[in-house]
Amino acid sequence: MPDEINQIVRRLDTVERNTTDLAKSVTNITEELSDLSKPLRELEVDREVRKERDKNLYSRLDQIETSIEKVHNLGWWVLGTFGASAIALIANFMFKGGFYVQ
Description:
It is a single chain. By secondary structure, the protein is mostly helical. The protein contains 1 helix and no strands. Helices cover 92% and strands 0% of the residues. The N and C termini lie far apart (150 Å). It has one helix at residues 2-95.
């Protein structure tokens, strides 16, 4: 009988050690999972920040594009005005007899 009790006590000790080891393992796994989730959260925040930066960048690029288009249109208007003035100057010179050769 004492041998049986000793065997039961040894088995109980083994089960308790296994339970303690299992609890330590679960704790370690939980800590590792927590450590792994921190960089994931940082990446998610970084991705959202990039989205906002890109949205702002595209908005600014659209404004620049609009400004360049306005300058382009103004350039064509100035060129047309200069061309029309040149034609009017030549026509005025011609009507006043500027091409008359004796």
